[in-house]
Amino acid sequence: MASKGLDIKTIAMIGCGSMGGGMAQLFAENGYHVALEDPSQDQVQAVLVAAKASNIPSDRFSKHTDYKSLCEALDSPKVFFWSLPHGGVGDKVLEGLLPYLEKGDIIVDCGNEHWENTERRQGKCVTKGIRYVGCGVSGGYQAARRGPSMCPGADDETLALVLPLLRTVAAKDNNSNPATGAVGTGGAGHYCKMIHNGIEHGMMSAISEAYTIMRKGLGMNLDEIGDVFEQWNSKGELQGTFLIWISRDICRTKNMEGKRVLDEVEDKVVQDYTGEEGTGVWSNLEAVERHVPAPTLTVAHYLRIASGDRHQRAQIQKTFGTGTGDPNKDHTAAFPPEELDVDDRGKFLEDLRMAVYTACLAAYCQGMLIIEKADKEHHFNINYVELMQVWRAGCIIQADYISETLLKPIYDNRDLKSESSNPLLHQHVASDLKRGFPSLRKVVASGVEADHVIPALSATLEWIKYMSSTTLPANFYEAQLDYFGNHMYDRKGDDGKGLPTQGKHHVEWKAA
Ligand SMILES: NC(=O)C1=CN([C@@H]2O[C@H](COP(=O)(O)OP(=O)(O)OC[C@H]3O[C@@H](n4cnc5c(N)ncnc54)[C@H](OP(=O)(O)O)[C@@H]3O)[C@@H](O)[C@H]2O)C=CC1
Ligand SMILES: O=C(CO)[C@H](O)[C@H](O)COP(=O)(O)O
């Protein structure tokens, strides 16, 4: 099948692991011939076996162990999809391919690559007339097979060429529109995918915290919790939220012995240690470097990295001591989470739902603030309407209500050059955060009282307070800075605007 933008029938898939393998089958299912290349022949074989099981004709694939034969199997222009680990691997593959590439050939890098690597490679390719698209892909291996969310960034001409191809395979939203679009120039696609993952981590943490509150704080069993997630996902502010939906399944899934799989899972996330993924680290570095407070994302990340070294936590736990003397108490933590003092469980669960929603909305807002800042500073020329569409299906942060009701109206039909896209400056978003605040405060207060681990929920509460206040404890902070460092301060109302510029006053708080 030929795509409208490119008259090709064959594509290459370089990297045939979880994601690349799924996408290879997806392209083949859509009529393309897929030339497979991966150093692991087992991976390539696994793709062919899975494709056979899906009744995809075997002649839709060819296997290649060198770039020459891979390139000979392709049409002109040659189109390569990459699904590789981030970092040096991509550079190595590009070096290997370059001798066989011609003007007009296209590379679509579908890994979670760092956007600066993407732009560096785009710079290298452009001198040879080769088009390099940084295309974040989301939804995990199942979406890769069924149809992922695809977030491409490149120059307009290149995007116009590849988008018909991406639209063919991308996930489709409820109106059958593909979850892809012309997101922006240069590394914009990988930048937005990186922030997608930052938002993802904030949402995941808030939901995981709610799970523990239900399990340990309210004494609910997994069937009951699964039912709660199902209800949350079916109506109201959390409806159509992919992570809530999979949370239901996680609660219900049993192993061969009929026991819950979740109860076998150790409490540690190690991707940041193994270097397997980088998006969480990078998105938080971006937030800090661009002066965007994104605590829901950041504390979620701290929880992950604290969790990763469980061995160290066990040692610290011993140092703190866990003995309360009461054999009925939980002895698996220095500050074991206790049952919550809740009068009306139904009412509290409604507060919990709103608290989780508020944290998810906050994570989205914080992510969008980082993107907006980077866009202004780096001139990604982001098309926010298209970006919203990328997140409407197939991706991990899919959240129908947040996207459709709250964020989309900010970007639709607006001239963002003259109007701010800061979600917090839009009344309907501010109203929703304000509406969720009392529930979030109740949940955080109860959670804190009972020693629950609730970083994303509590950090979101603080974020809402400090982002909407003009009487922060920062006046005292500023005074301390001026006292010891002569760092200067503004007097109340000095410039009338409170812009982030250095103050003009210093006081000798104590004679030197
Ligand atoms: N898993 C997920 O849920 C998602 C992953 N991603 C991103 O997609 C990319 C791929 O991830 P995933 O499929 O999970 O990872 P896998 O490890 O399953 O797949 C990566 C594949 O790339 C192969 N590879 C390594 N070096 C080369 C090379 N020089 N040439 C060709 N192939 C090579 C690996 O082979 P070998 O095993 O022999 O090293 C492996 O088969 C990553 O950037 C990841 O961050 C994006 C969204 C979701
Ligand atoms: O990109 C993804 C989803 O969007 C991948 O699932 C990725 O593996 C998640 O890893 P991490 O949590 O370390 O970012």
How would you describe what is shown here?
53% of the residues lie in helices and 7% in strands. The chain starts with 9 loop residues before the first strand and ends in a 27-residue tail after the last helix. The mean pLDDT is 95. It has 3 domains: 10-182, NAD(P)-binding Rossmann-like Domain (Rossmann fold); 194-467, N-(1-d-carboxylethyl)-l-norvaline Dehydrogenase, domain 2, CATH 1.10.1040; 471-512, 6-Phosphogluconate Dehydrogenase, domain 3 (Single alpha-helices involved in coiled-coils or other helix-helix interfaces). The chain has helices spanning 18-29, 41-53, 67-72, 88-97, 115-126, 140-146, 156-169, 188-217, 222-234, 242-252, 271-274, 279-289, 295-308, 310-320, 345-378, 384-390, 400-411, 427-449, 455-467, 474-485, and strands at 10-14, 33-37, 61-64, 79-82, 106-109, 131-138, 149-153. It is an alpha/beta fold and 512 residues long. Helix 1 (18-29) packs across helix 2 and helix 8 (188-217) packs antiparallel against helix 15 (345-378). A 7-stranded mixed β-sheet has the order 3-2-1-4-5-6-7, with helices on both faces. It is globular. The protein is built from 20 helices and 7 strands. The protein binds NADPH dihydro-nicotinamide-adenine-dinucleotide phosphate and ribulose-5-phosphate. Ribulose-5-phosphate (5RP) binds next to helix 8 and helix 12. NADPH dihydro-nicotinamide-adenine-dinucleotide phosphate is lined by residues 14-20, 37-40, 43, 83-86, 89, 92-93, 111-112, 137-138, 140-141, 277.
